[in-house]
Amino acid sequence: MKSLDGIKFAEMVQMGAHHLSQNADYVDALNVFPVPDGDTGTNMNLSMTSGAKETAAKVNASIGKTAQALSKGLLMGARGNSGVILSQLFRGFGKAVEQEDVLDAKQFAQAFQHGVDTAYKAVMKPVEGTILTVARLAAEQAVKSAEQTDDLIQLMEEIVVAAQDALNQTPELLPVLKEVGVVDSGGQGLLFVYEGFLASLKGEALPAKTEMKSMDDLINAEHHTAQDFMDTSEIVYGYCTEFMVRFEDDKKPFDEAKFREDMSQFGDSLLVIADDEVVKIHIHSETPGEVISYGHQYGSLVKIKVDNMRLQHTAIVGEEHKAVKKVPYAVVTVAMGKGIKALFESMGASYVIEGGQTMNPSTEDIVKAVQEIGAEKVLILPNNKNIVMAAEQAAELLEIEAAVVPTKTIPQGLTALLSFNPEASVADNQQTMSQAMKEVKTGQITFAVRDTSIDGVEIHKDDFMAMEEGKIVKATPSLQEAAQHIIDTMVDEDAEIVTVIHGEDVDEEQLEAVVSYIEENYEDVEVEVHDGKQPLYPFIFSVE
After folding, report:
1. How far apart, in whole angstroms, are the C-alpha atoms of residue 465 and residue 481?
2. Cα separation, 402 vs 405, whole angstroms
3. Average pLDDT of the residues of the chain
4. Does the predicted TM-score (pTM) go above 0.85?
5. What is the C-alpha to C-alpha distance for residues 500 and 444, in angstroms, rounded to an integer?
6. Beta-carbon count within 10 A of 365 CB
């Protein structure tokens, strides 16, 4: 095969997206940290699916035009750091070929290289041993191979081999991967895409992954009929929540009738499909975090997906979401938990996007949230390290003055928001708020989803893990012990205020024990308590 046009490239994109989709849970399982937010596969899958949908809608014989459609779809659908990097790889690819109708082997290889250059520029501090390494070494091999062959199938074969070799090297480049004994999850996701490309070029079918059952047709039909004939304001339950639970012997016994009855209290449009090993749930709810937390009682969480249907519906029918207050100068932030959302709103946030761990909003979600407000200037607070890049990408796409304050935790976001000055410029606020967020220390308690060992800490499944600034410092079966350890680690002689944000599963006795421990052992600090109602993280602490 000597040339590649837009129609064939569109077929490659569909095959790559399909192969990644079939293996997204495997990619999720490669995440190093044993926290309940191992969502690299989910994020990459949602990002690539967005790109594939846009490509399918705008297939053109010109590869330049088809590649531009892929680039746009990926850009708007990008979720999480892995999804953003994937979008940048094909943004550079698309830019390199935008004037071309067909590509030969050398042009194809050069487009991959241009994609790598674009992705590296988009990452402030590129880390080797990640998806970037896999993409770079595969592109370098492509350029070398294109000097020896003009056959695109052979070239793609060598790209796949180079990507696999690079993936195998990632544990040697990133010590934490070697310690845990896995390859990089983002790199694995990219390899699945490339394998799909190759299968399409060769006309071969990919091995199908066995699925329990599919709800996709039911869900799509339901959404289509609902969205065509209603106002956005009529959507009672705004978050389409889908996930699977893999049953575990040491968790709550599964009773489908009881499960369905309990789930129905969280919203409507409920679909529950179960067999002996897993249950798959689809529901429209206002509290997706509570839905997911309820499901976790029965086993491990798999393939979590949450979509804001109000934003989706606004895009479909072209109307403005009338419930949002219009402001000239806005702060948009991301948070999970009704209590934390209310806390941000009480402090002046214009819009709180539902999201965080396990549910990273896409670039498009952030753009549409800002557009709904109708502001002339906006500051975006992502409050999660895996949302920062999507927020920065959104800021670039907005046609108003926009900047990101790179908050990586809820306490950083709250502290930064306190420093917001509506009279100051966007640039000045960004600088002041970025400096302010450095003055707070963050601690979190969550649970381990598997056995592992990281940084010398032995971790067992279902242990409570104490994390300081994202680093696991202790794992123990006792929630109280984990909380006391993180408090002792964070509170020093300079500490003045300790804020305790407790989650939806924390009872009064557990909360009182933690607060009493602080008051009895650190008499000079003031203790503030907020009911965050966040799922998955029983406690979030901040020390100032």
Report:
1. 10
2. 10
3. 87
4. no
5. 10
6. 25
| Helix-helix angle 185-202:131-146, to 10 degrees | 40
Instruction: Indicate the pairing of strand 526-531 with strand 4-5.
Output: unpaired
**Placement of tokens 């897993």 in the chain:** 278
CA pair distance 346, 356, nearest whole angstrom: 19
Q: Identify the H or E element spanning 103.
A: strand 102-103
Determine contact, residues 288/241, Cβ cutoff 8 Å: yes
Residues of the chain with pLDDT under 70: 32-38, 207-236, 238, 269, 271, 273, 275, 303, 309-325, 357-358
49 is written with which tokens? 């699916």
Token pair, residue 264, equals 């129905």
| Model pLDDT, residue 146 | 97
CA-based nearest residue to 27, from 174, 207, 133, 167? 167
In Å, how far from its chain's centre is CA 84? 10
pLDDT on residue 311: 58
What DSSP line would sit under 327-372, residue for residue? -SEEEEEEE-SHHHHHHHHHTT-SEEEE-BTTBPPBHHHHHHHHHH
Determine the 3-state secondary structure of 119 from DSSP. Answer: helix
- pLDDT on residue 450: 83
> How many Cα neighbours within 13 Å face the side chain of 69?
22
**Residue 228: other Cβ atoms inside 10 A:** 10
Distance CA 355, CA 309 (A): 14
Distance CA 340, CA 352 (A): 9
Q: Are 360 and 43 in contact, with CB atoms under 8 Å apart?
A: yes
Rounded Cα distance between 311 and 331, Å, is: 18
Residues 6+ apart with CB under 8 A from 366: 332, 334, 353, 380, 390, 391, 394
What is the rounded distance in angstroms from the CA atom of residue 335 to the CA atom of residue 112? 36
Question: Where are any strands of DSSP class E within 138-296?
Answer: 239-247, 267-274, 278-285
Residues paired with residue 271 on neighbouring β-strands, in sequence order: 282
Contact between 273 and 279 (Cβ < 8 Å):
yes
The runs of H, that is alpha helices, within 98-128 are 105-122
Residues linked to residue 530 through DSSP beta bridges, in sequence order? 501
Residue with tokens 């927020």: 391
The partner residues of 278 in beta bridges, in order of sequence, read 246
At 472, is the secondary structure helix, strand, or coil? strand
Cβ neighbours for 280, distance < 8 A, ≥ 6 positions apart:
212, 213, 215, 242, 243, 244, 271, 272, 273, 274
Identify residue 413 by its one-letter amino acid code: G
| Beta carbons within 10 angstroms of residue 177's beta carbon | 20
pLDDT in the model for residue 223 = 41
Burial class (CB in 10 A: 0-12, 13-18, 19+), 512: exposed
Cα separation, 167 vs 144, whole angstroms: 19
Element (H, E) at 301: strand 299-308
